[in-house]
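Closing statement on the alpha-D-galactopyranose sub-project.
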Amino acid sequence: MKLDRIVFAMAAAAGTMLPAAANVQIPVTTPSTALVLQVGDNGRLYQQYFGRKLADTSEYELAPRGAEAYITHGMEDYFEPALHINHADNNPSTELRYVSHRSEAQSDGSTLTTVTLTDPEYGSEVDLCYVTYPDVDIIKSYTVIRNGEKKPVELEKYASSMLHFDAPAYYLTQFNGDWINETTCSEAPLSFGKKTLDSKLGTRADMFVSPFFQLSLGEPAREEEGDMLVGTLGWTGNFSFTFEVDNNGKLRVISGINPYASQYTLGKGESFRTPEFIYTLSDGGRGKASRTFHDWARKYQVKKGMDDRYTLLNNWEATYFDFNEDKLIQLIGEAKELGVDMFLLDDGWFANKYPRHSDTQGLGDWDETADKLPNGIGRLTEEAKKQGVKFGLWIEPEMVNPKSELYEQHKDWVITLPNRDEYYFRNQLVLDLANPKVQDYVFGIVDGLMTKYPDIAFFKWDCNSPITNIYSNYEKENQTHLYVDYVRGLYNVLDRIAAKYPDLRMMLCSGGGGRTDYEGLKYFTEFWPSDNTDPVDRLFIQWGFSQLFPAKTQCAHVTTWNKNVSVKFRTDVAMMGKLGFDINLHDMSADDLKYCKNAIKEYNRLKPVILDGDQYRLVSPYSGQHASTMYVGKDRKKAVVFAFDVAPRSVEHLTNVKLRGLDPSAVYDVQEINRADASKGDVKSYSGDYLMTVGLPLFTTSRMSSRIYELTRK
Ligand code: GLA
């Protein structure tokens, strides 16, 4: 124990405060915001200030002090706590007093500020940890709870973060939906009481609601103006965000693992680290918050966040389970012909006793189906190499069909209840990743494939079932640890894969967008937002995910969903993300194929702007008739504007759309590209000032039409 902690503990035990500690101020700052914590006369820690940075830091002291920074159950507060520990003597209360704080530089350039608090009576400690960055307004916050008692304690609630607000009104935007209907945005005011956004799904945790929110302060959220908190939990499992407005109109936001059925016992001396709550305080509405998240994600969080991405041809919608070696070899050739970087083989290539001819069987048996692929994956990677495209492979390694050899041999590895009939989600069950043997097995699937076929460049890692029949053979008397230990087990596997195969890229998929969190994306280069690839629906789904995730991470494929809509429209929508195709080229007309080939070339030319530039959402698809988004290169030399007419009225009064993010003093050449005949339009020049003040007539009254404009600074 450090000397200051010992001194403090002694003073606190004697019922006195260390005089030097009172009023200690702990600033946690980003380039333009400050979260200032302060020790009160009673030794407890308060949120003194959270807002835009003040020029004179001594004035934080003058701000009206907020509530206790990390409120504990059982003391004098009447609302939702952040922490609830049941002590060994059954005392359910905890009091936390300041011990010390320190700041340390991290290897990625960020700073970690740790504030250590202790319960003087019981000796347990809590570290409140904050990670900040020199160049981006993001704070990551988590806690470490240490059991300093002689016997085990039970954590009942263990939030990652608690934040307090005092604004005239609060408006919460949530993103919920279901399979093929992810991230529908809706906003509602918060009034007295609690609103919770949470998940109890375990694995496919985000199927019904995404693990992120926007909280607008004082007024409903706007795209480019207004103050708002935007936050997300980095946790590939059950999450919970609680928003509680109290009797005085003050709001607390509590974020962390969902404590539902997840009481966690900590043995003597053990500690529990919560996942990171990642947030930004924007004074420029949703748009600024999104751009902040995108910058941070690329630079600091997402696997290979600053690197390029592979365009691809996926066989799922072209073949479903119905393929063989010849068909795949043909598709690999088509990937080459199309001009994409990679061919991705989807579900249906494995299992022999119960061949994977549908989703009813075979999951768990990861050997190639002999009659489909007599020469194994090796023949396919060889063909891909010959064609000069990369090869990717679908796996769903956390799951098992009851109709599989794995299930027959290792039922004890399966999450399933004793004395109950099993029930299935998509005919499958979840393996017990809390069990280290299962972790070894899951790691072994990837390791085995990579060892045998080192030319595999990419995995699509799927996860189609939530945790059902919740019971672990491994956890024994600690059943409430399962939701947490499962995710830790998953990270253990992913850490091992990342360490052994640092260049391996992976797509995070969960029956569409059922797993979309930033801790997961440390291991994955991208995610599959939805199985719904209808381009109109995709405008909404991509709009929703773009609130926090950069285009680079959002896979967007051209398919045959909504065939009534032109290939151009479908491709234009997909070009706003990480472009791919999931379509049979022979179902396309020669003109459509020509269009797609040209679009890929244009995409390759413009992807530094789309994938790495600043995104401005100009017109929301929720407005009904149209949608528009633009991307501006970081040096403002290039921009790409996408415009969609979805359901305009034929007599609609159309107005210009003002562009954003350009250099007002520069002159830009504006040219329509990717026209239906793959040609380009005439070049017209405008100043950035004009484009942002007067705008362009981006829209038409033609239903389901789209246009892409390229802007080039002269
Ligand atoms: C999930 C994925 C799809 C596809 C199928 C295969 O639904 O989201 O993209 O891979 O599984 O079974």
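The longest strand covers residues 97-105. With this model delivered, the sub-project is considered complete and its resources will be redirected to Aim 3.
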